[in-house]
Amino acid sequence: MKRQLSMPFWCVRSTVGDPFGSSVMDSITPLEACDILCDAKKDGLIDFTSTHDDDIVEWDPANPMDDQDPSSPCYKTIHALKEKMDKVGLKMKMVTCSLHGDTLFRNGGLTNPDPEIRALAAQKVMRTLRIGNFFGAEYFTYWVARDGFECQFAVDWKTPYKYIENGLNLATRYIKENKLSIKYCTIEPKPNEPRGEMYLATTGHALGLIANLEDPSMWGVNPELLQHEGMTNLSASNAAAMAIHAGKLPFLHIGNQKAGQFDNDSPTLTGMDGLKEMVGLVWILEKLNWKGHIEFDNHVLRTDSAPGEKNKIQIRKDFIKHNVDSWRLAEGKAEQLAGNKDLDAIRAKYIGKTADIGKALESYDLKAIQAAKIDYKKLNETPVANAAIDYAFNRAILGM
Questions:
Q1: pLDDT tens per residue across span 44-77
Q2: N or C: which end of the chain has fewer CB within 10 A?
Q3: Torsion over CA of 160, 97, 190 and 138, rounded to 10 degrees?
């Protein structure tokens, strides 16, 4: 399936700084970023874009309703951006609230122990939702940002998950009461960074918390794969399959990651590892008939960026094309694998066994299960040929 693609403002505006060195590329304005994205739309590379509030407008905590004030810079900027986007048919698909950039939120946004800071975070979330509505966005994402901790003894463990639930319930209520365009919300989990530990570390953590929300049907997950799950050697395949099984995966964030490292945020398929993992992930999406869209969430390699006025636009344009071309490469290979009847036959030989007892298990027929006569010795002496399946797929991936 050729999926629709989104390239967010935050990826394009990144100046590629890291904890050990300042920015490499010259910064660009939101309007310049918008021009780059509109060109990518005109070139047929992308279908959508997304943004943090801070990617397009500055936050003035003293004026939480500035998006409604025609004289404010916020109001003027979002109108100028929308005019550019409307001309080329570029849709703002998702908005997310930055609760990590401002130093006020260094000890958390939604989970900050200070109720006044939590209230400012709530005001910022509501402003982001209104901005999303202005652009006609369909999704709102809560990235865990700085909602985490470094010292377990410095946390009142009765409160953080309650505070997250309060913040997400507030967003749902605000969307419904104001009849905003947002139709669905997601949680983007992460194990660590920018905090030492996050309260919602994995897809499983996020799915577990969603069950406690006022309206779980309004919430899903958008794991960042391969990066966030891979940071702690967890499986991107498992995260995606679990979220699809739960009916909670409207879209995916995509990039590349060397397992067990810091958040690499490398472009798709770029780096030492990740080729087989990414192709396998997309193959799973095909086999499970997943209908969502893909959103890139990565940055130009620091080595491949460069300062200077002449570079600041072209490098970013090349970055978008590299991501799209790399995704289509993985997508094309995954489609080949998914449609390969020989591979299906090999899989069916080893993992496609059927028996009447399977029906009893699915229907919870306790009497039939209890009465079943099963040949333990035969089953125990039958080899399990996972390696044979993997070898067949390796040959197909390598084109041999």
A1: 999 999 999 999 999 999 999 999 999 999 999 9
A2: C
A3: 110
